[in-house]
Please model this.
Amino acid sequence: MDNPFPYRLYLVISEENCAGRPLVEVAESAVRGGVDVVQLREKNRSTKEFLQKANALKEVLDSHQVPLIINDNLEVAKQVGAYGMHVGNSDLPPSEIRKKWNTPHCLGYSIEYLEQLNSPEAEVSDYFGVSPVFATPTKTDTVTEWGLEGIAKIRSLTSKPLVAIGSMKKDNTFEVIKAGADCIAVVSAICQAQDPQRAAAELRNEIERAI
Ligand SMILES: Cc1ncc(COP(=O)(O)OP(=O)(O)O)c(N)n1
Ligand SMILES: Cc1nc(C(=O)O)sc1CCOP(=O)(O)O
Ligand SMILES: [Mg+2]
Model:
């Protein structure tokens, strides 16, 4: 893969964050607004349920040529034919995923400590999640709140794409991209929005304004 992660606006979605609306509808609206990569993150589902949602989501994303990334679950990623996976420190390590999933796939790895950047896991990953940029109620088991200074620090230490995640919204997107992030990943700013398409378009505008 030449550049496995050229994306700018990343939707991280689960049914429970969609305010009672069907996940696939929210995702499709977001894509119409400018989301160019989607991660399915279903934390409390069986593999069977996760796979059903992944299949439904992939069908819609394929029709828009938008790639699907699967959070944590290699079986689901393999069976749905995902573009890639995202994992963190407590998950199956990227090097193990590379061994178990033969053809090249896009792997994202959460950076919670600077030391991770020098690890073999970082070496085999295609992009890094800056985890989190700002504290968020959507995920509370986090370690370092990197802030803008943290993004700049990580930027100075790697040329791989950086995905900013954690309380990302319209009002902080510009400065986060200017600090060195390549991509913005959001849950609430799109999934909780009354109009997910419009919310995505507003985020996309901020990104385009900053690059
Ligand atoms: C783009 C992106 N960045 C970070 C994460 C967090 O991954 P992880 O630390 O493995 O936590 P969970 O999402 O598994 O709870 C992410 N999912 N996506
Ligand atoms: C899935 C996820 N990972 C994070 C990390 O810090 O690694 S924060 C997060 C949730 C981000 O949700 P919201 O956009 O609603 O703040
Ligand atoms: Mg994980």
Summary: The longest strand covers residues 106-111. The radius of gyration is 16 Å.
